Amino acid sequence: MPVPVAQMRVIKLRLQSRSLPESLLQGRLTKMVLGLFVVVSLAGCSEKEAPKELTPPDVEVAEVIAQDVPSYGEWVAQLNGPVNADITPKVQGYLLSQNYVNGAFVKKGQLLFQIDPRPFEAALEQAKADVERGVASLDKAKNDVERDTPLAAQSAIPQKQLDDDKSELAWALAQVAALQAQQQQAELNLGWTKVYSPVNGIAGAANSQLGDLVGTTTKMTIISQIDPIWAYFNVSESLYLGFAPQINRALHPSARSPVAVEYIQANDVPYPFKGNLIFINREVAAGTGTIQLAAAFPNKDAILRPGGFGQVRVKTGTSRNAMLVPQAAVIEVQSQYQLIVVSPDNKATVRPVKVGDRVGSKWIITEGLKPGERVVVEGIQKVQTFAAQAPQLAKEGIPVTPKPYVAELGGGSS
User: Fold this and answer.
1) Looking at the domain assignment, is residue 53 inside a domain?
2) Which domain holds residue 382?
3) What would the pLDDT profile of 367-385 be if each residue is shown by its tens digit?
4) pLDDT mean over 58-87
5) What b/e sequence results for 253-279 when a residue is b if at least 16 CB atoms lie within 10 Å of its CB, and e otherwise?
6) How far apart are CA 280 and CA 293, in angstroms?
7) Does 253 or 336 have the greater pLDDT score?
8) Is the pLDDT of residue 25 over 70?
C-alpha cells in the first residue's frame, strides 16, 4: 500500500528542521518509508485471513434402555451384639489375676478373672464346722426322744420331759438345715471368686487391675456376642406401615422367605454376606416418629464389631420400565442434573433431567428422556468446549461424530 505524499512531506520537513546533512536525511527517510510499508502490509494481510472451521468433536454415546429394576431403601445402621454381658463379680475381694487377653475371643465357661479365695475358703471351713456341731446336737436330741418315749409311756418320767425332748429335736433339725444352707452359700461365694464368661464372644479391655478391690458394683469388662452380629436401624412410621405385612410374615418363626438385607461398611465396601431381618421394636419412638428394626449378619471372622456404623440396604419394590443411562453421562450443576442428548442427525443438545436411584454403574432417569435416545458418555468436555466457541449452535445442536460407548473401556466423562 503506497505512503501518502503529504505524510512523506511532513516527515521530510521535520528531518530538515534538525539541520542534518542531506544524505543522512535521505537515508532516514527511506528507512521510515519502508517501515511504514511493512506495517501497512501486515495489517492488510491479517484482515484478509479467514477464520478456521470448527471440526465436530468425536464422542461416545449410549442408547437409553428401559427395563424393570429393583428399587432399594438405605438407612444408617449401627452394629451391636445380640448379647453384651457386663462382667461383674458376685463377691467382694482383691483381684489376683486376669486370665484372658484383652480383645480376644473367649468361650462360654472360660475363666476370666481370679479373686483372692482365702477369706472365702476360711468362711467355708467355718460353715462346715457349724454344720457338724448342729448334727451333733441333732443326734443328741434324737437319742433323748428315743430314750424318754418308752419311759413316758410307763409313767416313769413326766410327759412334759418327753415333750421338751421332742421340741429340742425339732429345733436341732431346723438348726442343721440353716447351717447347711450357710455352708452352701459359703461354697457359692468361694466358687464366685473365679469369674467365668457367660457367653461365647469377644472380651473387651479389663477395667480392673491386679490388686484392685472389686465388688458387686464393679464392671470388670464386657463380653459381646458377635456371630451373628446385629445391625440396628430406624425407619419412618409411614414406611413401616407400608411394609408391615411383609415384615410380620418375614419375622414369623415358620417364614420360608426372610427379608434379605445388605450391609454397606463404613468404607463403602459391601459386606460379603447378606443378613436377615430378625427384630422389630415394640413401639414407635415418640420423639422421632421412627421404629427400630435389626438385621442379623454372619460374622465368623469378627470383621464387624459392636459400635460400628454403616448402611443397610433392603429391596423395597421394582421400578417398571425404568430408563437407565451410564452414571458417567449425568452432569450435575448446582444440584441440577443434565444430559447431552444426540439427535438422529447427530446434533447434541443439553437437556435437564430428573434422576432416581443408582443401579450398579447406571443411573435411573425418571423424567426428561425417552427409550432409544442416545446420550453422550465420553466426550462431554469436548462438546462443552465446542459450544463455548460456537454459542450460536448451542440451541440448534452441536454437530458431533458419535461412536458406540463400550462400558469396559471407560466410564468417566472426558
Assistant:
1) no
2) 58-69+319-409
3) 999 888 999 999 999 998 8
4) 91
5) eeeeebbebbbeeeeeeebeeebbbbe
6) 4
7) 336
8) no
